[in-house]
Amino acid sequence: MARVLSRRQFLLQSALLAAATGLSIDVLAPRLAAGAAAARTTDIPTTLLQTIRQGSIVKGQYRGLTTGPGEPYIPRLDVLRATPSMARKACRRSLLYMGHLSDLHVIDAQSPGRIEPMIVQDHSAWGSAFHPHDPLSPHATAAMVQAFSDARYSPLTGAPMGAAIVTGDSADMHSHLELRWYIDLMDGLAVVPASSGRAFQGVQAWADATWAYRPGDPAGGAFGDYGFPRLPDLLAQAIAKPVESVGLPAPWYAVYGNHDTLLLGTFDLSPQLHAMAIGGQKSYTLDGTAGSILNGYSSSGSVFQQAVDALGLALGRPGFRSVTANPERYLFEQREFMAEHFRTQSAPGPIGHGFTQHNLDTGETWWQTDLTPHIRAFGLDTCNQVAGPDGAVPGAQFRWLERELERAQTEQKLVLIFSHHNSLTLENRAQRPGDTEVLYGAEEFVDLLLKYPVVIGWLNGHTHLNQILAHTSPTGGFWEITTASCIDFPQQQQVVEIVDNRDGTMSLFTTVLDHASPAVPGTSGSVADLASRSREFAANDWAETPMMRRGSPLDRNTELLLRAPFDLSTITDAALESQHMTEHARLVAYETARGL
């Protein structure tokens, strides 16, 4: 975008931004003057340039990964339902470029609060209880944060990243330590994965846990039979040193996922599990896990039985091993999830990451904020508080959203909806006895959003796959954009850019990101190599149909067209230049702090 502010206006805003960021105006002003032209969009590493594909068999059924050609943007007209003008490509202007992360599933693999042996009962049903790459989760997350840093300028327009959203399932097993790791990695702080001390203490290091992938000697179990490699140094490398993170380059926001609400995203937290999580006994057998940790879910789990269980855990039971206790592994309560987001860095911010003091005071778990002067976001909590992985929209939240959408329509604010669950998983109406609040499902929720043309996009996760759905009405509609996860293959996330085509239409561009690691892992023990190993393991999880989770080409790099809900020329070029100057100044401060 050519500069449209007057020289006086430009210099005044540059001075204000220099003061706000602590940068010298002599450093900042030339960078701001260069604007989008300074971003070399052809070099930004995304799947536009290169993809990671399944490679040849290495051993047994185990396959490596390899690189493939990039994938261009595919226009989708499901909502527009008209032939777009080719002239839009030369006229477009960026309204917001943002990151979308979901289902990070940051894991403390050594925690006694994990229930890994449940995979023995049914790999397909309990696959999320154990992954061969669990100890590498912090490294994969850090590598994904690096990918967002690398893509901090739009590969389409060069616009600076203005915001990012994390749509839930951040802490895998409700552990406070996992929650802190996730927030710190987003903020650019190092995390210490050696949560049990200098030696790895967990099922993957124990020879008698033959059901697990044991990288020191995988023979004798299902993972070894499949062809998973022998990597005797892997567990030591996973905890050898702090996991460094560059941090997200833009202000980031968060919503609840079902894993941030219930145990394994499905069950309430039992007293036994609370005690287990911070204790010194870890189960490695199905009998031990089912008999002690899960006993609290039984109808016969009386107070006396709970006391017996706690005593048994203290004294040691068959199927358990002694491990180093860590009080930081305690299981957080619902409000603590919000409260921990206030223990954060001022940059990139914001403090609370969407949650406000009102949320802490009232217990409400949803929020709204203006990402730009022209784009309003609503962060929802669609998680069921009782049981089950899927969700719904509680009546109080539904009514609040309806009121706020009416206001956004009146104020002509473009609207983005953020939630964990998507329209295919929004039908869980489980309630406690006596609870009379209405829980709204997908049909009612989509109908609500369709009533307001200012709603242009709904970003979510939960299903761990790339998927884009069109929701239409006789007069228009909006796009639902679901991103993949950092735990299951393809371990991808995405950036989304909202552009004005200046012809009465607008587009949402989705661009898929692989985390910043090579397709073929090395053995150095670096964050990049361990993240790469995590992705390769995930691609070989035979019970998770990993290739399906990539989605179709229509679910990855796309241009999603729709009619503008109002005259977008009311958003002046001068206002956009001012917005991009602010976003760009934040990135210059970020780059300066990290020596980029």
Distinctive features:
596 residues; alpha/beta; Purple Acid Phosphatase, chain A, domain 2; 7-stranded mixed beta sheet; 6-stranded mixed beta sheet; 16 helices; 19 strands; 18% strand; globular
Please tell me about this protein's structure.
By secondary structure, the chain is α/β, with parallel strands linked by helices. The chain is 28% helix and 18% strand. The strands form 5 sheets. The chain has a 7-stranded mixed sheet with strand order 3-19-18-17-4-5-6. It has a 6-stranded mixed sheet with strand order 9-10-12-14-16-15, with helices on one face. α1 runs parallel beside α16 and α4 packs parallel to α5.
Short description:
By secondary structure, the chain is an alpha/beta fold. It has one domain: 4-Layer Sandwich (Purple Acid Phosphatase, chain A, domain 2). It has helices spanning 7-21, 25-34, 88-91, 137-150, 176-187, 222-226, 234-239, 271-277, 286-293, 303-315, 334-340, 357-362, 395-411, 442-450, 527-539, 573-594; strands at 50-59, 62-69, 74-76, 93-101, 163-166, 252-254, 281-283, 320-322, 367-372, 375-379, 393-394, 414-418, 439-440, 455-460, 467-473, 476-482, 492-500, 505-514, 558-563.
